[in-house]
Amino acid sequence: MSTWSNLGLQDSASPLMEQLTFFHDHALLILVMITVMVGYLMIMLFYNSYTNRFLLHGQTIEVIWTILPAIILLFIAFPSLRLLYLLDEINEPSITLKSIGHQWYWSYEYSDFLNVEFDSYMIPTNELPVDGFRLLDVDNRVVLPINSQIRILVTAADVIHSWTVPALGVKVDGTPGRLNQTNFLMNRPGLFYGQCSEICGANHSFMPIVIESVPSNYFIKWISNNLNS
Ligand code: CUA
């Protein structure tokens, strides 16, 4: 999760988020190179007192400074498209999780398991345990197995919400009357925190998401306990 002074991306917990981090760093590097180059030119222009009164056109330089930025942009465009299609690809998910956005909480359904379903509310500050995370912890966590392809189906019951978990590289809008799909694979155990990221009303900031990544035998235990109750 994100903590104080963490200005960059969170540590990735899935291969897709890893790719997103690589792409972010790649794009940032190009951005820094352009900024330094343009900044240098502007400063040099400011201190340069020589001018050429007869310089009205320069075919060669204009061809160069038109084509070169276009080529540089291709170095961002192609990796970006690669990632876009990579994120959209669903390969044989072993579990499907439905998450439905409400004002203002998430409800979840595990329809592979006799439809286990529950609501997930934020824990209010006055009920928070000392080791809890304010505005981030929930009463019922989403428990999911590690190293498994998981399909998420997102929708909403009232207004548009967005199911967003940064460490997993997932951000999908839940829209009433529509069913959106995404997928991820968690490659390490832990708790992954997320928040709704579509302005959905007064308590928009109070509908967090907590994913509990556990080994698959723990997950089977958890789901069978919930089947019995
Ligand atoms: Cu739901 Cu913002």
What does this structure look like?
This protein has 229 residues and is α+β, with helices and mostly antiparallel strands. Helices cover 33% and strands 26% of the residues. It contains three helices and ten strands. It has a five-stranded mixed beta sheet with strand order 3-2-1-5-8. It has a five-stranded mixed beta sheet with strand order 4-10-9-6-7. Strand 2 and strand 3 (116-120) form a beta hairpin. The mean pLDDT is 94. The site of dinuclear copper ion has 8 residues, from loops. One of its GO terms (molecular function) is cytochrome-c oxidase activity. It is a multi-pass membrane protein. It catalyses: 4 Fe(II)-[cytochrome c] + O2 + 8 H(+)(in) = 4 Fe(III)-[cytochrome c] + 2 H2O + 4 H(+)(out). Keywords: Copper, Electron transport, Magnesium, Membrane, Metal-binding, Mitochondrion, Mitochondrion inner membrane, Respiratory chain, Translocase, Transmembrane, Transmembrane helix, Transport.
Present the secondary structure layout.
Blueprint: H1 15-47, H2 59-88, E1 95-102, E2 105-110, E3 116-120, E4 142-145, E5 149-156, E6 161-165, E7 170-174, E8 180-185, E9 190-196, E10 209-214, H3 216-228
Parallel strand pairs: 1-5, 4-10
Antiparallel strand pairs: 1-2, 2-3, 5-8, 6-7, 6-9, 9-10
Helix pairs in contact: 1-2
Summarize the structure.
The chain has 229 residues and is an alpha+beta fold. It has three helices and ten strands.
